[in-house]
Amino acid sequence: MHFSTLAATAFATTALASPQWGGPHWGGPGGNWGPHENHQCISQQQATDLVNTAITVFNHLPTQDGANATAQALLTDDFGEYSDSIKSLQGLNLTGTGQTATKQEWIQGIVYRGPPTTGIQSLYVSPAGCNKVVWYFEFDAVARATYRVRGFNLIGVVQKAGKWQIDELDLEFNSIAWGLDDGEIAAACGIAQAMGELSGATGPPA
Length: 206
Prior knowledge:
It comes from Recurvomyces mirabilis. This is NTF2-like domain-containing protein. InterPro entries: NTF2-like_dom_7. Keywords: Signal. By secondary structure, the protein is of the alpha+beta class. It has one domain (about 25-190): Nuclear Transport Factor 2, Chain: A, CATH 3.10.450. It has six helices and six strands; from the N terminus they run ααβαβαββββαα. The relative contact order is 0.18. Residues about 1-40 and about 200-205 have low confidence and may be disordered.
């Protein structure tokens, strides 16, 4: 299970617009985040635009192929996703780097291996130093959507060819809620239903 393969908008604080790749928020004419502004560090607006563009990939907007094109440009070639939350849901040992996806694995999982992911709220977005962005998120439509899923993404960014790109996602979230929503916990435990739906004895057998 990837955050990507889990197939991630009414925002909790403010509605974020969806900038188009190559448009004003992405370094085109009149852009507010390219090097022509002489910024050494990512700004609040640039961080907000970056996160919101990533959300359009989850949403498969404007189309599935369009989301793929956006993701190809948004992520660096050496992009990596890292998450102990994901690895624990997979039942894997929490050792090594914790890498869960390369660029193409992430894109395939998000864009092509499932339906669009909607119901994403940005609860907080902020630059963290010059080349990191903190994104506190809520997913309200994971599978059966019994439980909301909140978590944090520490996004590593670099500026290449006049554009801010994502080169790393360090992601941790409420994996128990996610696993109950999409059945992964039930599957991992070898039971037929999610824990919240189980009935029967509440104590150990006599």
